[in-house]
Design a protein that fits this description.
Elements: E1 7-15, E2 18-27, E3 32-38, H1 46-56, E4 60-70, H2 82-98, H3 107-111, H4 128-171, H5 175-194, H6 199-212, H7 216-235, H8 240-259, H9 264-284
Parallel strand pairs: 3-4
Antiparallel strand pairs: 1-2, 2-4
């Protein structure tokens, strides 16, 4: 399976007095580049999260957002601290005895009093296992989105490879005949310039020129590189760097093919091949 470096996933999980939300998104990068945006209370899990991501991801600029959203307790689970209510009532009487004009405590005042429902603190360190479980689930969705994108890119690359094979296969058989015609024209021009008395010199020049315009080796290398691209696509895994290197090699052979061209067919083939290679290179930049 081939993975794109572009992906997105987000999940939430209910925990003590709130919910955890973990979001992952990534774009292409030459290396694995992790960035964390974590709630202050949960920064202690950044190191285990980093270790988890490094073990599962190879390349890409990955941003991880981890947040805790606190929620009020359910009404049927709220229990007033009677001792605190009694203390507040006693203090209210003492204050109004000393200050008769002071307004009494209201219900809203009492319900908003700190600690009126007992200890409301959250044990964040105890959430570490829940955070890692949530990260595993998010990574599953994240990998699935990158796999779907990677499959589309692999199909596009395979289509371009097939088209390049067609070009090489169609041009190859026509090159010897085209080169023979061009060589005959060259011989005629040399004879006109040097005369029949220089036949040996003409043969030497023609032989040297025939060697310079021979593109059989370039065509063979193109086929070999295309075979390797197909093999890597079938093998899958983190293959972006290998494919990018092969695009450089393919482009080198296509350029050489064009520079040695002595016939229109080869020049046109070289241009088409370079266009297809550039299309593949742009997409390979997104592969892990």
């Amino acid at each position: 399976m081939i993975f794109s470096m572009t992906g997105y996933a987000v999940k939430t999980r209910d925990v003590e007095r709130g919910t955890l939300q973990l979001e992952l998104k990534s774009v292409n990068s030459r290396f694995l580049d992790l960035h964390f945006r974590t709630a202050d209370e949960l920064r202690f899990v950044e190191i285990p999260l980093r270790e988890l991501f490094v073990s599962r991801l190879a390349r890409g600029k990955v941003e991880c957002r981890l947040a805790y959203n606190g929620t009020a307790g359910r009404v049927d689970q709220m229990v007033l601290r009677g001792d605190l209510v009694a203390t507040l009532a006693n203090l209210d009487r003492q204050v109004r005895t000393a200050l008769p004009d002071a307004p009494p405590l209201g219900v809203n005042d009492i319900l908003r009093w700190p600690g009126i429902f007992g200890d409301q603190t959250v044990d964040f360190p105890a959430m570490a296992p829940a955070v890692l479980e949530l990260a595993e689930a998010v990574l599953g969705d994240f990998a699935a989105t990158r796999a779907r994108e990677g499959a589309k890119l692999a199909t596009m690359i395979a289509d371009r490879v097939a088209r390049m094979r067609e070009i090489v296969a169609s041009v190859g058989p026509r090159i010897p005949e085209a080169q023979a015609l061009f060589t005959d024209k060259l011989r005629q021009r040399l004879q006109e310039a040097l005369g029949n008395s220089s036949e040996e010199r003409i043969l030497q020049e023609v032989a040297v020129f025939a060697t310079r315009i021979d593109v059989a080796e370039e065509l063979s290398r193109l086929v070999a590189h295309l075979d390797e691209v197909d093999r890597i696509l079938k093998e899958g895994g983190a293959c972006g760097k290998r494919l990018d290197f092969l695009m450089q090699e393919l482009n080198r052979e296509a350029n050489t093919l064009g520079s040695k061209s002595a016939v229109t067919e080869v020049s046109q083939a070289s241009m088409e091949l370079k266009l297809l290679i550039e299309q593949m290179r742009e997409q390979i930049q997104n592969l892990e």
